[in-house]
Each structure stands twice: as C-alpha cells, then as structure tokens.
Specification:
Strand order of the largest sheet: 1-2
Distance between the termini: 118 Å
Helix content: 55-70%
Number of strands: 4
Structural class: mainly alpha
C-alpha cells in the first residue's frame, strides 16, 4: 500500500495543472532536457504542495536495487500521450534443448512435411498412385493416421488403386496393433477396423473363418451404447452371420443401458426387447432374470411407458401361470414371479399380495397360512382362501383344493379305493392346467401320474409302467422349462431307473443342477451322495455338510441328517452344539427319531448341559409318535443306557406296546 501511494501521488503530480511542466521521474521534460529546477515545490490539483525531488528520491530507493529493463506504456484516457518509466526483472532465459530433443523435433517436422505432401497428393493433386506411395512412406515413418487413410484408399474401387489383398493385411494391423492410439476420451480410435476385421472373421471373408475370435473383436469394438444395441440386435436375430443367441443379446442390451450414452428414445425399445427375450428363455431363464423383470415391472420406472409395461406383465403371467385368468393388478405378477422362479421368496412377495383382490393373489396368500410364513399356520384359513380364489376362476386354486381333499382322505382312511378316485381328480385338475401350457402344472401332473401308478389297485402292471414313463416325459418337459422340483424328480428317476433306464451320471447332473437352484430335496440328496462317496463321487465332508445345511432350512429330515453327521466321530464342542440345535429343529417338525438323538445329547451333556429329566421326557414323547417302530427304540433306550439311565420298568412298558 505504501509503494502504491507513492506511485499514485507521483502520477498525480505529473498530471498536475495544465500550466505545470511535465517531467519524468528523473527530471527530464517532454523535450528531453534535464530540469535543474525539478526540486522546486509546485502546487497540484490535489490541493496539496509536494516536493517532487523527495518523491523522486523515494522512487529510486524503492526500485533501483532490482535488475531493470526500461518499459514504457501510454495512457488510454488522456488527450495527449505521456510516458512513465519503471522497472521489472529480466525474463528468464529460454531453456536449452538437448541434442535428443532437437533430433526429435526435426524428425517430427520431417514427418509432418511427408504427411502434408501425401495429403496434398490425395486431396489437391488427386494423384492416387502417388498418394498410395506417400501414405505408405508416412505410415512406415510412424504416422498411424496415414495407415488408416491408406486402407480406405485401397478399398475404394473408384480411385484406380483398389487392392483387396493389400488392404486385408493392413486391416489386421489396424484392428490388432494400435490399441494405444486413442482419442481424448481414452477410446481406441481404430474400433471401426476391429469391427470390420471381426466381422470378416465371422463371415470367413478374405480370412480363415474364426467365429470366436471374430465375435471377441466385434465386442471389443463396441465402446458406445449404440454399438452395443446394434450388436444385441445382431445376436437376437442371428444377422450378419452371428449365431443367434438371446442370452448374449440380453447381455448386449444390458451393457448398452449401463453405458447410458445412447439416445433416450431408444430406452423403451431396448428394455422391452430385453424383457421379451428374458420371458422367452427356456430352462432357468426366468430364474436367472427374475430380478431384472421385477425391476422392469415395478411401477414408477419412467424409462418405459405404462402400456408397454402392462403388456409385458400380461405376457409374463401367461408364461408363469398359463390357464389362469390374467391379474387385473400388475403387482400380482411381480409377487408370483417372486414365488415361482427360484426359491420362493415369500417375504419379498407378500406386499404384492396384501390388499389385492386378484384371485391369484388370494391363492398365494393361502400358501402363507398353510406354511406359516410370517403368521401362525392356519389350515382352515388357507382352504377358505383357496375356495375364494377358485370361485374367481383360478385353476391353480382348484388344483390346491383337490390336493387337500386327497390328503384329508389319506390321513383318515386306509381304503385305497376312494384315494384312487381322489387322486384321479387331482390329476384331472393338473392336466387341465398343463394342457393350457402351465409349466408348473406339468410337474404336478407328473407327480400324480406317478403316484397313481404306485398306489392304484386297479391298474395293470403294463399300465403302471406306461404311467411311470409318462411321468418321466412330463418331468423332462418341466425341467427343460425351468421347474427346479421337476429336475429333482427327474434325477430320482435316473438314479433308480423309474420310467427310464438307470443312469447315475445323469442323476448326479440333475441333482447338482436342482441343488444349485435351491431345491432342498436335491440339496439333501447331493449331501448324501457327497458324504458317502456314492457313484464314484469323491468324498468331501465339507461340501456334503454344506449341502445338508442348505437343505435343512426347508427340510426337517435334512436337519436331522446333518445333526447325525456333526455328532459322529471326534466332534468338536461347536459341532455338538449345532447338532443339538438341529435335532431340536427336526423333532419340533415331528421327526420322531430326532427326539431320541436329542435325548442322548441331554443325557450325556453333549453340546450343552446335562438334563436327565429332559432326556426322559423326550424319550417318552418320541416313543409315542410312530407306533411299534418308535416303541422299539424306547425299549433299547431304557435298556442300554445310551439315551437315558437304564430303567427296566420303563423298558418293559414299551416292550409290551411294541409287541416284542
């Protein structure tokens, strides 16, 4: 601020009154003459008197020490020109180039001159043979862009230099050797050549046909969303010699949406194409794409019109539950998708069924009461809801009611005659749905066809064998269309040769596949096969236990088997504690054998505290659950002391009840 004040005052002094003589900071006037009277005080327009000589001395004191260079500037806001002289540091010297830098600059200049000459021959002189020579020279000298220009010139049939063979060699180089040549966004510049060369490999046009290498190049060339859309369409339709692959087409469309640099107007088309392809996928397709379809069908997604979403929902429901009326509420389809593809996800599905008057939603809520999902089990409530759904035209509800009638009769009657008739009614309901294209119904029809073959007292052996074969065919169809339970039954038929030739390798493949898709029965069987090393399967304790653990979440019998596995041998305390919990889980689900195992744990203090009274109570309860079979186990328990303390009186009691 101090320096600035001095300068401002000096400038004010120099611009004083019109009659004042102008001098510079060193006392020279406009004519260049030194003014000896420069030190005389003069009156200025600032209404103050200043000794200019003092200002000059101060100015020199402030700025004289620095290296100086005279610099003159002229005012823009005055009626006349005047100058002031001041000082600033010398600019830094220009850096000295190394010999290598000088050589590189010279080479770059020579290359530029060569490129300019080639472009002149191409665009000005239109001397195409000369342009070919010069472009090749420029490319050999390191100019990659000239190589691309040369390729385009060689494939142009109108320029008189067409050379397909030479261009083919250049194309390989351009497509595979210049990934480091990129634009300002980091994308390879020569993706067009990757695409061309890849397509040529797919077609076998000018090169040995190599579909895998060609498709790999084409996919690498797709760096923009629009390119992925085009690629998806080609895979979807099998165009341009691409193998038709809906799964790859879906992947291409998904990639395009993730990239997001395409026209927004395309999004509804892309998403609808994806949805229709997902719905049409055979086998596990709907399981694989379940979450994608649910996201597409949920209200509020602005990327697809409501009318298109509704149309997709209708088509999807007709695939999921053919033969049933299409729901009026789109939420029903989302809920059904949660329940029918993959392991039933009742927690996710429940909001879509609640406060929903669609017969299908009512039918599905009946399953919640039947299985105790999120509420106490209530069989009568379930039957009431199934009846209401069936009255609304839901064929699956009719099937459920028929099954219930059979189960009630089976639990209350030993006579096979009415059971066979009721089983025929169930089979008829399942067949009506299966004939309408309902895929899960094919699995149900197969089960009841097989059950009638095993239980019927009126069918001949030939008829029973024909029924078993028919069941195998139905399970094959249902498994191919993604019904995981059908895959399990197919595996069981292969393992034991029921309705088909025995094939343990096929059985293991089917079990493993169904287990992967969370079928608990298949998980249990794979656990047994792996733990026991059946059918040349390497024994793998950890893997086998994992299969049983996954199955135990749904199957009490799997929990019981896993408990036995953990308990045997030199089990750790953690294993014994888990076994104890598993036995309790299984016994609570009416697996009576688990009651005796849990009693043994309490008797010996395995995995927890000893509890002899608790052990005896468990033995008494388990012994009464399965008639003579469980009574015999109670006899052994009270005799050998392995489950409870020996008690001859209790052993005699159960021996009498067991009839031994």
């Amino acid at each position: 601020m101090k320096n600035l004040f001095v300068i401002l005052v000096l400038m004010a002094a120099l611009q004083g009154t019109a009659n004042a003589q102008r001098v510079d900071a060193y006392g020279y006037d406009d004519a260049g003459q030194y003014r000896a009277d420069f030190g005389v005080s003069e009156s200025l327009n600032l209404n103050c008197t200043i000794d200019v000589s003092e200002l000059r001395a101060k100015f020199e004191q402030l700025y004289a020490p620095a290296p100086v260079q005279s610099y003159t500037s002229w005012s823009d806001d005055s009626d006349y020109d005047y100058s002031t002289s001041y000082y600033r540091p010398e600019p830094p010297p220009e850096p000295q180039l190394t010999p290598e830098q000088i050589a590189a600059n010279q080479k770059a200049a020579e290359l530029k001159a060569l490129v300019d000459k080639a472009n002149d021959a191409l665009t000005v002189q239109k001397d195409y043979p000369l342009a070919v020579t010069l472009l090749q020279n420029a490319a050999d000298a390191g100019d990659t862009a000239s190589l691309a220009t040369l390729y385009h010139l060689l494939v142009d049939k109108d320029k008189g230099v067409y050379d397909k063979a030479r261009a083919a060699k250049l194309l390989v180089d351009l497509a595979t050797g210049h990934d480091d040549y990129r634009d300002d966004k980091g994308n390879p510049v020569f993706n067009e050549f990757k695409r061309q060369y890849g397509q040529a490999l797919i077609d076998g046009d000018g090169y040995p046909q190599d579909y895998d290498a060609g498709t790999d190049l084409v996919q690498k060339a797709a760096v923009h969303a629009d390119a992925w859309v085009t690629l998806g369409r080609e895979y979807e339709a099998g165009a341009n010699h691409f193998h038709q692959s809906p799964a790859i087409a879906i992947s291409c469309y998904q990639t395009s949406l993730l990239m997001g640099d395409h026209s927004g107007a395309w999004i509804p088309e892309i998403r609808s194409r994806m949805a229709l392809l997902m719905i049409a996928q055979p086998g596990a397709g709907l399981r694989q794409y379940r979450d994608d379809l649910i996201g597409l069908l949920k209200p509020g997604d602005q990327s697809i019109p409501d009318s298109l979403r509704d149309a997709i929902g209708v088509k999807l429901y007709n695939v999921l539950m053919a033969g049933d009326p299409v729901p009026k509420n789109p939420s029903t389809t989302i809920g059904v998708l949660f329940m029918t593809k993959g392991a039933p996800d009742w927690e996710q599905a429940e909001p879509y069924f609640t406060n929903n008057d669609d017969p299908a939603a009512i039918r599905e809520l009946a399953r919640y009461y039947e299985n105790g999902w999120g509420r106490p089990k209530d069989h009568q409530k379930a039957i009431s809801m199934l009846t209401k759904a069936a009255a609304g035209g839901d064929k699956d509800a009719e099937y459920g009611l028929a099954v219930n009638k059979y189960e009630e009769a089976r639990s209350g009657s030993e006579s096979p005659t009415p059971l066979d008739g009721l089983a025929a009614d169930v089979q008829k309901c399942a067949k009506a749905l299966a004939d309408a294209g309902n895929v899960p119904a094919k699995n149900n029809l197969a089960k009841w066809t097989r059950l009638r073959a095993e239980k019927s007292t009126t069918m001949t052996p030939a008829q029973k064998e024909a029924a078993r074969k028919k069941a195998y065919e139905l399970w094959t169809e249902a498994a191919d269309q993604g019904v995981r339970e059908a895959t399990y039954y197919l595996a069981a038929c292969d393992e034991y040769g029921i309705g088909a030739t025995k094939d343990t390798d096929a059985a293991k493949r089917h079990y493993d596949y169904a287990a992967y898709w969370d079928d608990p029965q298949a998980q249990k069987r794979m656990g047994e096969i792996t733990l026991q090393g059946l059918y040349d399967t390497p024994v793998d304790v950890d893997k086998g236990r994992h299969f049983l653990l996954m199955a135990s979440y749904s199957l009490p019998s799997a929990a019981y088997e896993l408990g036995l596995e953990l308990k045997k041998g030199s089990a750790s305390n953690d294993d014994l504690k888990q076994a104890r919990d598993l036995f309790k889980q299984a016994f609570d689900a009416k697996i009576w054998q688990a009651g005796f195992e849990l009693a043994a744990c309490l008797h010996k203090g395995l995995g927890g505290d000893k509890d002899e009274a608790g052990a005896k109570a468990l033995v008494e309860k388990a012994a009464s659950m399965a008639g003579a079979k469980s009574a015999k186990i109670a006899v052994d328990a009270y005799t050998n002391g392995a489950t409870v303390d020996p008690d001859p009186a209790m052993a005699a009691k159960w021996k009498a009840l067991a009839g031994v």
